[in-house]
Amino acid sequence: MLQENKKTLSIVIPVFNESNFLCKLFDDIKNHFNKENIEVIIVDDGSTDGSTEILNDLKKKQDYKFLFEIIKLESNSGKGNAIQIGIQKTEGEYVLLQDADLELDIKDAKEMFDMIISNKDIKCIFGSRYLSGKLKKNNYFFNNLIGKLNSLIFNIFFSQSLSDVHCGLKILHRNVIERIRLSVNDFGIEIDLASQIVRNNFFIYEFGVSYFFRSKAQGKKITWVDGLKSFYYLIKVRFFDNSTSTNLSILFSSIYMAFVGSHFGMGLGNTLFIFTFFILGSVLGIHFKIFSSSIIFFFIFIGSLFGKGNGTTFSVIIFFFLGLFIARKSKKYFLNSNFNHYL
Length: 343
Known about the structure:
Strand order of the largest sheet: 3-2-1-4-7-5-8
Radius of gyration: 24 Å
CATH topology of the largest domain: Spore Coat Polysaccharide Biosynthesis Protein SpsA, Chain A
Number of helices: 12
Number of strands: 9
């Protein structure tokens, strides 16, 4: 239970050289979140364009009811680090993450907050720029493509169905905040955050939000390089940031699925099948630990003993799906056992 002096909502906003937007941002916050039980924590991430002075002037006005705190970092450390520092200072039952550039509307943030406090079963809501029937302005095709592609890959890796994993507008319950351990310091924080929420078995709800892109001339900082780096973070959070048992499962299933691939094609085609099945095996190893995965391999091996040529290929496929079915059943059976980490 939260103590009586704790806030209902903490709003964390990382700021780096956003002098053109801060006054409007502050007015929007006052219009939608001007209450005593709310705290606004702005992390000034080494701004050099006058943002620091503007923030200090806004704080001095004191024409607001919420608690307003500014954390000044001497040098730019990245959006992810700024968010981590801001979260550490929060006391609210809910934590709202909001960008400072006004690409995302504070009004939508208020709607998300009203939604989550009215339903105690919801612990996490992500904004989505692709779900809404609200206004949207965006002509950055490549950035848009990378965002959708990353969301698709994330969904495959984590068995999710998110439309916009990169949206900077999110609200999380304190229970979620206490379970995650963020470590990425740049724009990859969105992938790090989403992956840890899923790993801790919290369901991510999505809410359609407005989106008004800004150009590089207006101060947009994320680039196509960050989009490519996000592929690295997707690989990292899925295939390396795991328990030892999961990593062993990934290695094991990758090897035996490569064995399955060896039954397809000839020459270069056979090599491509082996590589493709190796990748599929790595994804399979995420969802099945050693014991369950061994069941799949056992059935594949049995299938490889039947027929010749295409007959063997067909037999391997049939036995693979049979092993997959039995492995799923065994996984559910042992889910609550003391051997869950291995089964």
